[in-house]
Automatic annotation (TrEMBL):
BP GO annotations: oxidative phosphorylation; proton transmembrane transport
Location of the protein in the cell: Cell inner membrane
Cofactor (UniProt): heme c
Name of the protein this chain belongs to: Cbb3-type cytochrome c oxidase subunit
Pathway: Energy metabolism; oxidative phosphorylation
Any Pfam family: FixP_N
Gene giving rise to this polypeptide: ccoP
Record-level GO cellular component terms: plasma membrane
InterPro entries for this protein: CcoP_N, CcoP_N_sf, Cyt_c-like_dom, Cyt_c-like_dom_sf, Cyt_C_IC, Cyt_c_oxidase_cbb3_su3, Cytochrome_c_Oxidase_Subunit
Length: 287
């Protein structure tokens, strides 16, 4: 039998063959080759015109001197100038009177939402619901006060920020450092569980009330209702910054807590601080 020759039999091969299957060395389509060469030419032109080749510090500037950072900064400056009059009004208006000006309040809330998402959501959450160690900003429980002026003070100067002399500061002792014995810590924790309406050991809670009065009431109040002037939380509700179960309370009393919030003065403009203050205040928990 004579096998009919196929035109592919005349094509060169790479020399690879397996089980009668040969690998042909056929040329690439001309359109593909031209496109490939075109991308090389384009890349060379791009490297000449735009920043492209990385150096130790920065990159080659390119003939056109184009910078995406500069373009973004130019856009920011354009909008900043467009809003300059509103920013001036926002800074000059009393904090308590901003909400009375519908246009100014709308501008503050919109701008504050953007500031919050950029600088605050990382800790307080996108919806401002907070988390363990980060306060919920949509409820009505405030360590330092929830009126617009108190919120502005907190944002501007932070909490326990050593770099700001006007920061809010409070210090809870680590009672495990030779202040209270393990037995006394267990007792006062049971007392806190009792006043917060949780299951507790009554036999330990009774002497725990005395331990509380001697060591905790000065900041948290005789009934454990807290003191805003000191940033001391209310221990009688169901809202806990770090957790209100027995094990967490023992850890808190033993080792203390000292969360820190950075001051935003100097990082944000006064207009931005006022914007985010108004935004937080209107979320639902503002007073």
């Amino acid at each position: 039998m004579v096998r009919k020759l196929d035109k592919t039999d005349e094509m060169p091969t790479t020399g690879h063959e397996w089980d009668g299957i040969r690998e042909y060395d056929t040329p690439m389509p001309r359109w593909w080759v031209l496109t490939f060469y075109g991308t090389i030419v384009f890349s060379v032109i791009y490297m000449i015109l735009f920043p492209a080749i990385p150096l130790i510090n920065g990159a080659t500037p390119g003939v056109l001197g184009y910078s995406t950072r500069a373009a973004v900064q130019e856009d920011i400056e354009t909008f900043r100038q467009a809003n300059a009059d509103l920013d001036t009004r926002l800074v000059e208006t009393e904090l308590t009177e901003i909400s009375a000006d519908a246009d100014l309040n709308r501008y503050a809330v919109a701008g504050g939402a953007a500031v919050f998402r950029t600088y605050c959501a990382q800790c307080h959450g996108a919806g401002a619901g907070g988390g363990v160690g980060y306060p919920n900003l949509v409820d009505d429980a405030w360590l330092w006060g929830g009126d617009i002026e108190a919120i502005h003070q907190t944002i501007a100067h932070g909490i326990r920020a050593e770099s700001d002399p006007d920061t809010r500061f409070s210090q809870m002792p680590a009672f495990g450092d030779d202040y209270l014995s393990d037995e006394e810590i267990a007792q006062v924790v049971e007392h806190v569980l009792a006043i917060s309406g949780q299951d507790h050991d009554a036999d330990l809670a009774t002497p725990g009330a005395t331990v509380f009065a001697d060591n905790c009431a000065a900041c948290h109040g005789d009934q454990g209702e807290g003191m805003r002037d000191l940033g001391a939380p209310n221990l009688t509700d169901a809202i806990w910054l770090y957790g209100g179960d027995r094990d967490t309370l023992i850890q808190t009393v033993t080792y203390s807590r000292a969360g820190m919030m950075p001051p935003w003065t100097g990082r944000l403009t006064e207009a931005q601080i006022r914007q985010v203050s108004v935004y937080v205040h209107q979320l639902g928990g503002g007073e």
